[in-house]
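Note to self: the last two entries modelled the partners one at a time, which told us nothing about the interface. This time every component goes in together.
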Amino acid sequence: MYKVTLKSLALASLLTIPLVSCQDDEPEAEVKEGKYVLMTASERTNIPPGWITVFDEIPSGNVSNITTSSLQGQGMGGWRPYNNWLLKMFKTSDASKGIERLKLENGTIVQDNFLAGDNATNGTGNFVIVNETQGFYWDGASPLKIQKFNPTTLSRTGEIDLTAAVNERGAGEAGILYRSVGQKFLAVKNGKLFANVTYAKTNTAQKGFFDDFFPDVYIAVIDIATEKYEKTTKINDTGSISYINENQMYSFDTNGDLYIITQGRSATGGKSKIARIKANDTEVDTSWSIDMDDITTGGKFVTIYATNGKLITTIPNTPLTPGGTGNINTGNIWEFHVIDVATQSFTKIEGVPACTNTGAAYGTVKIDGKLLLRVNVNEANGSNGYYELSSDFKSAKQLFQVTEGGAVTGFYKVEL
Amino acid sequence: MSNQIISAIKLSISSGRFFVFILCFVSLQAFPQLKELKGRVTDTRKDPLAGVLIQVKNAGVSAVTNENGEFSFRLAAHEEVVLRFSLVGFQTRELAASPARPLTISLEEQVKELNETVVYGKTETAAARELSVKAEVLDLKQAHALPVNISELMNRSAGIRIRQTGGLGSATDINLNGFSGKSIRYFKDGIPMDYLGEGFSLSSVPVNMLERVEIYKGVLPVGLGADALGGAVNLIGRKLTKNYADVSYEIGSFNTHRANFNSYFSKKKLFYGLDGFFNHSDNNYRANVKVTDPETRNQKDAKVSLFHNAYTGYFGQAFAGLKDLAWADEIRLELAAFKFNREQQHPALMTEPYGGIVSRQWSVIPGVRYKKQLRALEIDQFLVYNTLNISRTDTAKGTYDWFGVFTPNPTRNGESSRPSLSEIKNNYLTSRTNLKYSLNASNTLELNQVITQADRKGKDPLGPKFMDTQVDVLSLPSRYLKFVTSAGINSLFFDKKLDNLLIIKLFNYKASGVETYQSREISSTEAKTSKGNTWGIAEGLKYQLSPDHLVRFSAEYSNRLPDHNELFGDGVWIVQNFGIRPERSLNFNLGWRTAARNRYTIELNSFYRRTKGLILLVPIQAPYARYENQQNVKGVGLEADGSFQLGSGFTVSANATWQNMRLFGITVQQDVWKNGARLRNTPFLYGNLGINYQSKPVSKQGATLKAFMFYSYLHEYYLEAIPKRLEGTGLFPRAQVNTLLVIPNQHLVNSGILLNLPARRIALGCDIKNLLNKDIYDNYRVQRAGRSIHLKINYSIK
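The predicted structure of the combined assembly is written out below.
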């Protein structure tokens, strides 16, 4: 593994700027007909209420997310779309945990179907879709199993029991109070299902989050065709892979490489990493990782988007602080950066203000071939909208500003 | 200056309120000593009458009889005056008097039709109209025989909405003038009720236990010492004036059983009595829910009977004391105890069923009250120390569905996200000292101080622990100490038609405890302290245009201190926030009232509020939340209330409330659009219409029949903010947005009859609630019961 230091990264970033500039000469993507759907959260809460509005054209300038055709509901922290489906982990009418699908109908958004899960456990509803008829999700009611579902009908179809896989380690360990598989990380790659294995020191309300028993994060590999557990791989010396909501915090690069975020030892970071499983591999690439501790002290990764050998993420400009006056979620401290996978150099994206944590929202989305950054600045006259990233990844400028509806949490295009 | 007055001033000084001393001193020097006129008022059976208003005619001076029917004035030594005695339900009398002649007078009962609740718009007693602060007073004596709840009676009043999270015994929240939650403080006989937990609450106390309920909207009297922001509710126990004992029993739908016993005996200087009640209801009414298919996990609508929603509660109180002693007008010792078990059917929203979660509270409460009048000085001291035990059990190894079917799941640790086997002890010390000094017939000074100390310590083997130490976070103690000191002067001006009340309040608190937030590793020795001081001022004016016609105005700058839970959290989900500031509010009230005896009563009231830093619970990082100063709210409200006696025994009452409470002062760009939006989860338009019939005696034994019907309308309101421009227009606006976060229009009709058989000392009541069997909702759209029938029998033993 490369040993990355702040100085070396900074130097590398300067050296690679010209290369970055020369790499992206992609042809302009074809813009298909569709509707643009915007989500905002009207309160700063974990499962916030908010609004969804359908736009005929991609918004620009100042836009309102509250119109007579908008939908107001719960669980508007973000979504995890798949093709033309708007999916989220919280029901819009009452914030129940599970998987909900929304659909366009007469120019507005309405509830379509809901697959209910256990409301008592965070992580319920964490899902991944293989294709339109096959998907997997985790339900806190059966923490040692991964549930199967049909994404088209949005109905549960069965389960895979992974108790034996989980018990491969720590079976007799008294300090492990809670175990689960797939609670925080589910990904599909080359016919394999990857699911994190949780060994937690607590068994109360926050079980499974920031309470890792082992210093390494374990990921079970399951063959999708046979539904057989194959092995476990691990990310060394980190903690808290992913989190509990729609922002799954992993991304596939254009070449199929999978990049995974771990938040580290606690909510304030420490040992936070970006790890990789290469496209044709099922093992974590131990020769490659990026450690937040090497970039800055007291930070962590919270969002990632991979494309063409670049990782778009945010880096805090201030050490994270917890508690009543903490800055993790509402402080304007998160700055967008681009990391070059090959050199591990990182470059701040110019023109984008330091903003709040993306939380459940995707930090970066690709719409009509444009890479858009979610930016919310929690202050008077602060930015609140999406910024379009330049083709050279060096700068971004605001595409639209949302004036009504709350903090931006989701933007997607449903093709017609 | 008497020793007692010196003592009072020493007390003022010792309690750190030097300005009160100055106020007293200046006032004492300014007014001469006067002679006292004493008297006693009884009914025709010679039983003392409490709450009789005695006005010095053409002078604007007034007094109110105490529970022994006694009153006194300070008058010039040889002044001859005409006194006017009035009490609702009795004929008004006038009588000449002077300090040289103590007098006794009896009042005759008035034969007229009454609602089962009579809303007078008065304070401390039925004579409250003579004070300058605005209050609604529910006289519950008229409702003792009916199977009704205090909360539903309050909901029939203007400007008041009580919301419950379920059926009998469920938690309640009152909304007054747009304020709710902790902005409203609760009292029992003038004492803050924190020490009683939920053992004596609006949803559990039978109407028979109380004489009346006073609801203050805005300025509180000096005697109610609290840092309330939006008002207060004062539950007044039955006035002990004559020997009596009565019992009641109610049976109703959903296996509801309520029993009540009250007694009072007096012999010479000794008095004693026993009160108690028992409540039980399965609360198994039918509700609309989403039932989840166990295989597909898809949901469908269903109407099911709630199966784990029962409430059982007991309350008992024994008291004894001595009265008319040389050193005490009354010394009363009391020992109360309560216990309740409450099943929890679902979380805050009806998203899924629970079948095993139970919460309990219990306490044994010894208290003492001392009253003494020393010439012009009245002393009233109350002291109580008790341990409020609170426990919660959530240990099920499995889950229930909405049909009550249990599915075992060995990996499960409780049904909710908060497994618990908690036992928390809250040790409360509550002291309330009230001193009144009548300077003369026109000026009264009052000093009130409430000291509350709450120490919390507990355990929960299934609850959170300090990281890596396994120390139970509840096992470490926390302490909260609060002083609320009020001083006021009540004065009369301009030919004594103008009544002025000026109050100054000081608030102090100090809290200490251990941080419980777990997003980092925490040492169990990280003790924190927090303290604060603030003040408030209130001014009330009333101008008596005629004996039955008045206008009233009040203004107040008030503060509400963050309480123990808001500072230190609950040790489980709510984490501490030491940066929290007191809520502040500037309030104005303006009212007009007129009445024509036995014909009509009309009252119009309005208010303006400007509140900054409302404290709200805000989730910060799953699953934790903390209290924060979140919002600024301002707005106006209008209330109209009328009662009309139509003759032939019919009375019609109606009221309507409109409130326009809106957010302001938001500067963060993402939320600027909320400026001008209505305060969320707050009803803003509602009204009531009632018709009563009371027969004349239908038998030689004096039996009477009474029938009533009440209709309540609650206009739709929203759980979250919507922009003002999309609220809709007209008298009944409908939001012009597609929202799933709406509580729809609600129509509720209740109807009942009451048969009173005085010769047999029996009263029989029947009440049909939600006669139309409509779907009605409450807090956060939790469904309430459909149609239900309740029967009640009252028997007066003595």
